[in-house]
């Protein structure tokens, strides 16, 4: 839609198309020239250039990078004020890990789901000693979500995290 404002044509961006040397015409139409049609044609061509530049920008934009994510589970200890353990995903969504951090004999695990729909579990088998359990994805699918849990019956889990 091109609206007339004091004899000037204004776009949605507030730019004047008439009287501008950039678009190559003046405030007064030439002989046999229809201002509305010519302005619309120029607007369409300018819009096409803007769309083409935006499309190239999207094509050249890098893919979204995966971010490392860690989820801690509390509730351990005499008054439930200690962290039981933590689990998460790292290394561009190729590694899942589980770390037990409280010496209560329960252990810790991380359940993870792949983009293929498959799931897996990684355990921290050494209790609260240093070191964590880990699993590296070897196929074409990356980890899309995970859930950190205590290795108890039934397990106590943090909410599922999407990465």
Structural notes for this entry:
With 163 residues, the protein is an alpha+beta fold. The protein contains one helix and ten strands, in the order ββαββββββββ. A four-stranded antiparallel beta sheet has the order 3-4-5-8, with no helix packed on it. A hairpin with a 5-residue loop joins β3 (69-76) and β4. The model is unreliable at 1-28 and 52-63 (pLDDT under 50). The radius of gyration is 30 Å and the shape is elongated. It has one helix at 35-60, and strands at 3-5, 8-10, 69-76, 82-90, 95-100, 108-114, 119-124, 133-136, 143-150, 161-162. The protein folds into two domains: 3-60, no CATH class; 69-162, Immunoglobulin-like, CATH 2.60.40.
Order of helices and strands: EEHEEEEEEEE
CATH architecture assignment of the largest domain: Sandwich
Beta-strand content estimate: 25-35%
Q: Which topology of the largest domain does CATH recognise?
A: Immunoglobulin-like
Shape call: elongated
Report, as a whole number of angstroms, the end-to-end distance: 43 Å
Low-confidence stretches: 1-28, 52-63
Defining traits:
163 residues; elongated; Immunoglobulin-like; 10 strands; 1 helix; alpha+beta; 2 domains; 4-stranded antiparallel β-sheet; single chain
Quick overview:
The chain is α+β, with helices and mostly antiparallel strands and 163 residues long. It has 1 helix and 10 strands, in the order ββαββββββββ.
Mind sketching the topology for me?
Blueprint: E1 3-5, E2 8-10, H1 35-60, E3 69-76, E4 82-90, E5 95-100, E6 108-114, E7 119-124, E8 133-136, E9 143-150, E10 161-162
